[in-house]
Amino acid sequence: MRYVFIISLCVASALTACKSSSQVGTSSESTQTTDEVSVSERDGTSYEKAIIAKSIPDEYNWLKKNHPGGQVLRQALTKYKGKPYDVLTVRLQDGTKKDFYFDISSFFGKF
């Protein structure tokens, strides 16, 4: 079962990478609201404040931009309130570990 998940994740990543690159669905200038939380409040620190990603590369680009030098230790697929999320555990430059939540409902299971 674990291998099926890993293979599925690799296939989804490859298919997503083949699509044209797009920006992460967050912007500090935007005040648009989604699920009762404004986009500018989406810092990835919880399911409620998850970053809205359009692809797996978007997740890594967001981390690179917002936490340069961070090292992804783990990526886990989870569900919360019926929606799929990726939770990335990252070792930040100061050595602390932190989980970042990404709402992947816009592309997960669409291929």
Main beta sheet, described?
A: 4 strands, mixed
Radius of gyration: 14 Å
How many individual helices? 2
Give the rounded overall mean pLDDT: 77
Shape verdict: globular
Q: Work out the count of structural domains.
A: 1
Ends distance: 19 Å
Strand order of the biggest β-sheet:
3-6-5-4
Structural class: alpha+beta
What structural keywords apply?
4-stranded mixed beta sheet, 111 residues, alpha+beta, disordered N terminus, two-stranded antiparallel ribbon
Describe the structure.
This protein is of the alpha+beta class. It has one domain. Helix content is 25%, strand content 29%. The protein contains 2 helices and 6 strands. The protein has helices at 2-18, 56-66; strands at 33-34, 37-38, 51-52, 71-80, 83-91, 97-103. The strands form 2 sheets. Strands 3-6-5-4 form a 4-stranded mixed beta sheet, with no helix packed on it. Strands 1-2 form a two-stranded antiparallel ribbon. The longest helix is centred in the first third of the chain and has 17 residues, at 2-18. It is globular. Residues 1-34 have low confidence and may be disordered.
Reconstruct the topology from this structure:
Blueprint: H1 2-18, E1 33-34, E2 37-38, E3 51-52, H2 56-66, E4 71-80, E5 83-91, E6 97-103
